[in-house]
Amino acid sequence: MTRARIVACLFLAGPAAAQSTGAISGRIVDAETQRPVPGAVVIAAGPALPGSETARTDSTGEFEIGLLPPGEYTLNVHADAHQSASQEGLVVHAGRTLRLNLAIVSEAWTSAPLRFGQQTPALPATSTQTGGVVSRDQLELIPYGRDARTYEQAAVSVPGALGDPMALRMFGSPSTGTRYRLDGLDVTDPASNRQGRRLLQQFIEEVAVDTGGFDAMYGRLAGGIVQATTRSGGNDLHGSAFFDWMPIETPRRMLRYNLAGGADLGGPIERDSLWFYGAFAPVLSANRSPGVVDTDYEYLGKLTWRPGAGQLLSLAALNDDVLVRYLGHLFGDAAQVEGLAGWHRGGDNTNSLQARLQIAHVAEFYGRHRPVYGVEGARDEAADVNRWYGAAFVQDTWSPVDDVFLHAGLRAERDGQVDRTDLLPRAGITWDFSGRGVSRAYVFFGRFIESAPVGVMERTRESDFSAGLESQVLRDLVAGLDYVHKQFGGSPDGRTSYDGATVFVAKPFSASTLLSASYTRSTLRGSDNVLANAPNVFKLDAAYAFEWSPRTTLTFGTSLRAIQASPWQTTLDVRLAMVRSLSSPYLLALNVDALNLLDREAGGTPPLAIRFGGRLSF
Question: How many domains is the chain built from?
């Protein structure tokens, strides 16, 4: 096996992936002649996938392995008259596709193989979609959340995302236009359009935050989507026990203490075929006034079954929510199918029954096309009032020439509450101007409409125009400039338009460091004084890991926010942690968090607090 005897030109492409899974695609050529290698066998395997998935290259050397659960994968390539090759460390995220251009050498090649500049995939070079992914490493290194370390608390680290009480807003859109998903299930509260199902970060694998540039597969929104992928079983038994305790708040006012503790366990029932995962944690909080203790029990159970090659079925219970999801390659791998059915059960007699079916395939006509079709429906209920929702969509991504990708789609949405059908077009173009998958220039236009809370007739309509320029300037360090313009109609708070420009740099956790820094300058206009206006927003999230000894690592993580509101809100959160390797395979992690270290309480920000945490894992 020859490792990395390939041209590692890597990039992320949104359109090819399903909404809750990712994909790996690309082109394989002969390293000497640069001609396509047809019939090559490409195998993807990783800890997040039972077994492996296989594809063959077509006459142009193109391949695609879709419907991959988020996680890290190794790609192995085998072709007649060529040496085998492999590429490790390919991280796939939900709603995104990793694309590689690989050059493999012939069996007759005896000299040292050429190795071209290898860069870790770090930007969506073929997509118009904007946003970011908060990895499990980032969740463990940086303190997100105060009273509860739940997954949506990490979303504010992404440029354009700002927090409201129990909700998030994206690039000037109202908070009611943001949708929340767990493993693909929409857990938005039908009664308020706020976060309807919280789950501790300890049970989360990653949080994908999408802020704009959506293809036609995405609907019911006027803003963005926060989607968390929960942890799952695997071929190796793994588990942990943990606690978070916040006993100190200075000066002490309402909060007396906040305590969360729990455990999780996952592993195989049958290797490469049937996996299980379970987690449980009580979350307690006590207030000085009115002197009561609130207890919330969070639990998660999941079974993942691979009945055959190219088929994956999962059943999950997320607190009171239930979902079944099918991922499959059908008709001789010609079509990729994702199906989901679920029931979101909220408080105060709120429910949402949901179903979605999405089919994708590849076609050749004056270039390479990848059409996607789908339907979805939901029945929402709140306080004995119900609403039916249905949608159908078609989306195509066409590459007429190398490094240029055209996107066009149409979504039809039927909202029974207002007895109306809306047609929502989406279009965009992306150009990888480096030709190596490490840059993108994009333009996007689309129309969106929120699915209003049950019983509310007013719905915010939104027309988006966005453009941006991004480049992977050094290894996995990305720098970019994005612009978005939005026109609003029917917004209850009177907002009419938004303009925002963001400059950012981002680096995922690697080589012991993590960095995410952004500055957004924006203007939000409206007929009234729109309270959500934040003209200047600066964000910094950073972490560093230092190897103190072969068995001990010290980490430092920080999160800084400076938001011009009324008045300015500046917060600094810091985490110091130690990770100690005990007798194999046990790891002990201890941390102390200082929340609002600057102790600035402007705009209702809670005072300085100290939180202690620990985790024993194997």
Answer: 2
